[in-house]
Structure formats: structure tokens, C-alpha cells
Amino acid sequence: MTYEEHRHEPGDEHWWNESWYFDFATEDFGGYVRVGLVPNQDACWYLLCLVTPTSVVRIDDKTAPLPTDDALTIHGITHVGTDGTWRIAGTAAAEELTAQDIVDGRPGTPTTIELDLTWTTDGRGPFEYEVTTRYEVPCLVNGTVNGRTVTDAAGQRDHSWGVRDWKSSRWCWSSARLADGTRLHVTDVVFPQFRFTTGYVDDVTVTAVERTEEIDDLPRKGRLVVSPTGTTVDVTPIAHGPTLITDGGDTWPFHRTMARFSTDAGDGLGWIEWNEAPITSA
Fold first, then answer.
1. pLDDT tens digits, residue range 164-178?
2. Number of domains in the chain
């Protein structure tokens, strides 16, 4: 597949969405950004989340104005990409709190985010999903965040467009870079009528996964057994960056967690997420 980094013409569905996702992970610091355009609701879901084992600094705005420029400027942050490279840079007001505060709905303390980070393709190019318009790209991430230097951090980005109703399915998504350079990505989506699983272990396409997870207020651990490679991955959280989603009178935590991924071939770092929404018909 070739890159399609540009915006796409929206359909007329209420939940038509176009999103760009970016994350990075180190031993004790990481983050993610989601630019989610929902044009038929005249809104942008914007998430910029920086995490350590003890704190979260974030912008969480699900009613941000749609960006009007090619730089996708939101909250003073620009998101500029070409085939193979994306740069996110700017300074913005944010809040600092804990992951438990987020789950409990408590407000944070005002602070500031200043960042200049670049995602550069590492390994394979875009991995295209078969049943929906979306692709994933493994990356290395470099730059600075609030004066802290990030050097060759494990990262991932994706681009997706189409109808995305967060209450129509539950899913687990993950990506990691192991110590030997192996890139791992697994997505497992469960709809009321069917299940869809995809991803990759380097150049091998994932066809199925057996997964278990322990989630209380926050994720505690997880395991993925990936086919056809037979790779077993134990997932140990390092830091959490959840957000609360409200739709149709229901509110639930969407868990996104920076984690250590342990396999027989060695450990690695990355992110894993769980959408445990109350499923409705699509």
C-alpha cells in the first residue's frame, strides 16, 4: 500500500471519522496523540497525553474545532506529515493529574505542554487492514518534550478514515518494538456478529490471537498468543493514559497503557489499548 497521508472526502454518516494516531514509549516516559476529525458533528476529538508511572499530563478535548489548515493545527500544536515522516510541535495549555483521577472523573492542575517530536518509519512501510480503510506504520521517535530529550523511542502511528462508531465493537490494539528490533502489532476487534484480527510480527501477517487481560479501574496485565508465529507476549503496564468516552448516555474508560512486552525472544516497549464499550448495533 502507498501512503495516503492527506485528508479524505467524508461520507455523510454521523460517525464518519478520520484520525491520525501517534505514540512513543521509553522505560519511564511516553505519550500519544490522536487527531480525530468528526466532520458531520463539526468537531475534533483531540487527545495529547504524556505519561510517567506516577502522572499524566494531557489535553483531552472531544469538542475541539475542526482544523482548517493543512498543518492540522489544534490547541496551537501542528501535525505535519509526508510519506515516512511526521512532526508534531508546539506549546499548549494542559492539565496534570493521575490516571486514577481520569477514571474517577476528577480535574487536574493547569500546566503546559511544549513538544517537538518526529515519527520516522522504522522497518516495514504502511500495513493495510483488509476490512477497513486504515494503515499502521512502525516508527522511531526523536525530539524533545518539556525540555526532555527523546531518542529513538519505540513508536507507532496510524491513519484511518471511515465510519468509526466506538459503541459498535470492543477491541484490543497493541504495538511494540522488541530489543532485537522485531516489530509487533496486533488488533483484535469483536463485533456482535463477527471477530476481526490482524497485525504483524515483522513481515508475517497475524491471523488470530488468543488474549487475556486483567482490568480493574486500570489495566493490570495482559497476554497475547499470536498466530501463525506462535508468539506469546506478556504485557506489563508501566504507565496509563486513559480517557473517558460518553455516548448515548453511557460513559466508560477507554484504556491506553504504555507497557513492557515480554516474549521468549526478549522484551520490548510499546502501547496497548482496550475499548470495553457497552456494545450496540452498528
1. 988 889 999 999 999
2. 1
